[in-house]
UniProtKB/TrEMBL annotation:
Family, per entry: Belongs to the LysR transcriptional regulatory family.
Gene behind the chain: dmlR_2
GO terms, molecular function: DNA binding; DNA-binding transcription factor activity
Species for this entry: Sulfitobacter pontiacus
HTH lysR-type domain mapped to chain residues: 1-60
Keyword hit for Nucleotide-binding: no
Protein name (record): HTH-type transcriptional regulator DmlR
Gene3D superfamilies xrefs: 3.40.190.290, Winged helix-like DNA-binding domain superfamily/Winged helix DNA-binding domain
Length: 300
């Protein structure tokens, strides 16, 4: 166990500066003394943490692992002090946020830049991807997730509804007719994302229905589904926020309005379990919930 956090702090600075001597100077240590302390830390953990040459210092694989944990430790200490000192502290440090690609480009990124303009001492690392990954293992403070909430150890807060609907181009429906029930969809082309062909619905009286759809256009890209539907390649399953402007322009119209696409989706704010919620995370969570409430295509 590392009993001296100053050793750990010295290692973090040496890794970031790429020079043990420079890091040591920040702590009032000579280059020799700083090197000896790094060596003592390596002996304590039982692994070489830094590669040393006469010109530079680089971090080993084991050092990278320790560095990631060490930085989180010091951030947690800082967060604890901010939490005790109150809400009026200036936000500092880095907010690491993950979110889905299309929704992130349309909403999260603009909201983040607005939040940054309010907090000039803060830095944000925003990672947008439709791949769901472990935010704890990857060092993220929080994530915004769309969909049905799955069992997880993460803490979740609902930000808003995320209604889904079926849409199609008016010309396609004029040529092919309009389905009246979910089972009618087997007679129509559907635009499919990621080979998700089993579509489920809840009827006007709460009855459940499911159908396996098919079509000529399959894509992994959300925008690709929208464009294919507009171009008349079939009926698509979309979130309302994705197609609101196309519905308003008349490029798309809704289908099967009496049925609810199941399972019903929500937008959640996710963060790691336990521990203190950092002030920057808490304030961003409150901020983005207020912003979501102002989006007309989302429900509360």
């Amino acid at each position: 166990m590392i009993n001296d956090l100053k050793l750990l702090e010295l290692f973090v600075r040496a890794a970031r500066l790429g020079a043990i001597g420079k890091a040591g100077a920040e702590f009032g240590l000579s280059p020799t003394s700083a090197t000896q302390r790094i060596q003592a830390l390596e002996s304590e953990v039982g692994a070489q943490l830094l590669h040393r040459t006469t010109r530079s210092v680089s971090v080993t694989l084991e050092g990278e692992r320790l560095l990631k944990h060490a930085e989180r430790i010091f951030e947690t200490v800082q967060d604890a002090m901010l939490d005790v000192s109150g809400e009026n502290q200036v936000l500092r440090g880095t907010l690491r946020l993950a979110g889905p690609a299309s929704f992130g480009r349309k909403y999260i990124a603009p909201f983040v830049t607005e939040f940054l303009s309010m907090h000039p001492g803060l830095t944000v690392q925003l990672h947008l991807s439709d791949t769901v990954f472990d935010i704890v293992d990857n060092g993220f403070d929080c994530a915004i997730r769309l969909g049905a909430l799955e069992s997880s150890s993460l803490k979740a807060q609902k930000l808003s509804l995320c209604p889904r609907i079926l849409v199609a181009a008016p010309d396609y429906l004029k040529a092919m007719g309009t389905p009246q029930t979910p089972q009618d969809l087997v007679h129509f082309d559907c635009v499919i994302r990621d080979a998700l062909q089993n579509w489920k619905f809840k009827g006007p009286h709460g009855e459940e229905d499911a159908v396996k759809v098919a079509g000529r256009f399959v894509t992994n890209l959300a925008e690709g589904v929208t464009e294919a539907a507009i171009s008349g390649f079939g009926i698509a399953r979309k979130c309302t926020w994705e197609v609101a402007e196309h519905l308003e322009s008349g490029e798309l119209v809704t289908v099967l309005d009496r049925y609810i696409v199941a399972p019903e989706w929500n937008i959640h704010f996710m963060r790691p379990p336990g521990g203190i919620e950092p002030l920057r995370v808490r304030q961003f969570r409150s901020f983005i919930k207020q912003k979501m409430a102002q989006v007309p295509t989302l429900g509360q």
